[in-house]
């Protein structure tokens, strides 16, 4: 089973969820050979619950994942912490939504939840907890104490960082960092649109029907990381496309009139 463990459903935090846009993303994920993905939308994106409300209308849900025309979508979210850094939480939808509700007072910059508090909250549920892009300059994790970081299950090898800092350098940094903490490394495209799917993913030795099985496969090392030769081109194209789409979205916004003033 080929799964991407770091993906988004929206172009940016500021945009609304578009079912048509996400259907295009799912089609491209399948076309790039993926069988599954974890949807780790930002916890403080605009109208977070709207994402899952729409998925409930779009695709059948079996209690563990959405069945999107042959692609499995496991629920999750990406959470900012006060110390700077992002944490991916993946699990059953009801657990993700309960944790999100508990974060209602922590969604604004400057008031994010401290790492230890987030871990204590997340550990109440059987979630997969991944430290996202630990060496990204803007949102690193390597500054936290080793004792804290060992509360995570794995660390994210991220397509955006592979492109930004170089495949070999970034991978060596993340793998060394994770090994020192005794943790595995997982792959995630971190895509916000369709072109980045398939650039970086995890190939599991067998299909997983639940997040519990997925977590066990990762902790037992029953998978391999796959990096596409086309990763630099895919990410570069994705960056350019995202800028263009955001610019078009701004142009389509209604022009204020005197009546709006």
Q: What report would you give on this structure?
A:
The chain has helices at residues 19-31, 48-58, 93-102, 115-122, 146-149, 159-165, 167-181, 211-219, 231-251, and strands at 2-7, 36-42, 66-68, 71-80, 86-90, 128-131, 154-158, 185-188, 200-204, 223-227. The model is unreliable at 255-261 (pLDDT under 50). Strands 1, 2, 3, 4, 5, 6, 7, 8, 9 and 10 form a ten-stranded mixed sheet that branches. The protein has nine helices and ten strands. 41% of the residues are buried. It is of the alpha/beta class. It comes from Paenibacillus rhizolycopersici. This is PHP domain-containing protein. Residues 3-83 form the Polymerase/histidinol phosphatase N-terminal domain. Pfam families: PHP, PHP_C.
Specify the helix fraction band. 25-40%
Radius of gyration, whole Å: 18 Å
List how many beta strands DSSP finds: 10
The largest sheet is:
10 strands, mixed
Low-pLDDT windows of residues:
255-261
Report mean pLDDT, rounded to a whole number. 94
Taken from the alpha-carbon principal axes, the silhouette is globular
Beta strand %: 15-25%
Number of separate helices: 9
Q: How far apart, in Å, are the first and last alpha carbons?
A: 54 Å
Order of helices and strands: EHEHEEEHHEHEHHEEHEH
Structural class: alpha/beta
Pfam families: PHP (PF02811), PHP_C (PF13263)
Organism: Paenibacillus rhizolycopersici
Protein name: PHP domain-containing protein
InterPro entries: PHP_dom, PHP_domain, Pol/His_phosphatase_N, Pol/histidinol_Pase-like
